């Protein structure tokens, strides 16, 4: 069994990039997280459970947005790849790209009108312009070009590494039920899917392959090819890869989690709703609801709760809601949930001792009551290992946040 190891980070608020003009961020810290974690190692199974409860990762950094108190709630969205039907627009994108690769046709000329729908098979069409050439290599300057050209951000090669290369996901063998096809990946984990044209890297898609889905982490492309909608093309390719993995004998892998989140309040991010049938994760029950049935609630509220519509909220989060987020005690988890979490209690050279979270909290509370030095001892270790937690209460709160979220 692969242990998943994480270092706690306190809940925090940050500025938002969805409700400001392009390239700008909100003036106030109006986007809030419910919990965050610096993951040292995650098994694909544990990370799958996390993203099914609204978490995402950026490098090793994992976070779960607090939708109720954020200006632009971020909903996890997944596409059912087995039932996916490409739209006319999607077919056009694939055909245009294939024509460009095979015949050098320019995107701007709009040739071959009307032929895009004739006998279209997404699976064969999507592979038509591909070839595979060995090891993936990522070039930071491509990313810099993308970030400065498209997002107007300044970045560094180190920032690129931390954001898009480093991963906490442990590579685990995919247990195919049938003989594995050569071009399919052998392991769950993080991949860079590189798009090259005549040897030149023109786009990179960062994806995680997990037991139930392909989760797209990030996509970046060369601005020279903007006219070919490479972001949408990559989503179609990832959809086909998920479909192929399922067909090759990974029965539970049936979904594509579209990059990051669905943001209904941001017109630019609504394109994720173009893929049908897709589902949104309910922010309170973590059940999945068809996007089509969520539309009305989303358009009438800032915060939409699909499982309990009466809990939906209109208008920006007021001071009460923000205060509630900042000062509320975290929900106490069930005892059995704590049994699955271990806390490092002692480090002696290369020996690391762990105890269950239950035992840890029990000892901490007993220590606090009797005034023994145990409290001091364990909190010293905790603050060594967990630089963001300085007291028992903070540590307990963090643990509760993490487990109940
Ligand atoms: Zn916002």
From TrEMBL:
Sorted alphabetically, the keyword list is: Acyltransferase, Transferase
* Enzyme class of the recorded protein, top EC level: transferase
Q: What's a Gene Ontology MF term here? A: arginyl-tRNA--protein transferase activity
InterPro entries in the cross-refs:
N-end_Aminoacyl_Trfase, N-end_Aminoacyl_Trfase_C, N-end_Aminoacyl_Trfase_N
- Keyword Transmembrane helix assigned to the entry: answer is no
Q: Please give the Pfam families that the UniProt record associates with this protein.
A: ATE_C, ATE_N
**EC numbers for this chain:** 2.3.2.8
All copies of domain N-end rule aminoacyl transferase C-terminal, residue ranges: 143-281
Q: Where is the N-end aminoacyl transferase N-terminal domain?
A: 14-92
A single GO cellular-component term from the record reads:
cytoplasm
Name the protein family: Belongs to the R-transferase family.
Query: Do you know which PANTHER family this protein is assigned to?
Result: ARGININE-TRNA-PROTEIN TRANSFERASE 1, ARGINYL-TRNA--PROTEIN TRANSFERASE 1
This protein's name: arginyltransferase
């Amino acid at each position: 069994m692969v242990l998943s190891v994480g270092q706690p980070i306190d809940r925090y608020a940050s500025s938002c990039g969805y409700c400001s003009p392009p390239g700008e961020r909100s003036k106030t810290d109006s986007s809030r997280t419910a919990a965050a974690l610096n993951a040292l190692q995650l098994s694909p199974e544990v990370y799958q459970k996390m993203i099914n409860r609204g978490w995402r990762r950026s490098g090793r950094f994992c976070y779960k947005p607090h939708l109720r108190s954020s200006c632009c709630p971020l909903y996890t969205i997944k596409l059912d790849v087995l039932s996916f039907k490409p739209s006319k627009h999607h077919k056009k994108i694939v055909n245009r790209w294939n024509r460009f690769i095979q015949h050098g046709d320019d995107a701007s000329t709009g040739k071959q009108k009307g032929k895009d729908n004739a006998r279209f098979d997404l699976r064969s069409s999507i592979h038509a312009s591909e070839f595979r050439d060995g090891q993936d290599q990522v070039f930071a300057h491509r990313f810099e070009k993308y970030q400065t050209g498209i997002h107007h951000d300044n970045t560094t090669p180190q920032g690129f590494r931390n954001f898009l290369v480093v991963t906490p996901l442990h590579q685990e063998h995919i247990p195919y039920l049938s003989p594995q096809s050569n071009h399919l990946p052998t392991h769950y984990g993080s991949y860079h899917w590189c798009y090259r044209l005549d040897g030149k890297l023109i786009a990179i898609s960062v994806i995680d392959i997990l037991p139930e889905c392909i989760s797209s982490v990030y996509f970046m492309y060369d601005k020279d090819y903007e006219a070919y909608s490479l972001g949408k093309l990559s989503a179609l390719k990832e959809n086909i890869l998920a479909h192929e993995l399922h067909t090759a004998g990974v029965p539970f892998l049936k979904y594509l989690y579209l990059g990051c989140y669905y943001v209904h309040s941001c017109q630019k991010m609504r394109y994720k709703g173009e893929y049908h049938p897709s589902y949104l994760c309910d922010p309170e029950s973590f059940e999945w609801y068809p996007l089509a049935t969520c539309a009305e609630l989303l358009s009438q509220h800032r915060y939409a709760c699909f499982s309990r519509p009466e809990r939906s909220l209109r208008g920006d989060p007021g001071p009460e809601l923000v205060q509630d987020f900042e000062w509320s005690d975290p929900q106490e988890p069930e005892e059995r949930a704590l049994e699955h979490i271990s806390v490092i209690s002692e480090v002696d050279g290369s020996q690391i001792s762990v105890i269950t979270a239950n035992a840890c909290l029990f000892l901490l509370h007993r220590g606090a009551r009797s005034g023994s030095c145990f409290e001091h001892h364990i909190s010293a270790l905790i603050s060594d290992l967990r630089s963001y937690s300085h007291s028992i209460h903070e540590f307990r709160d963090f643990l509760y946040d993490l487990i109940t979220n």
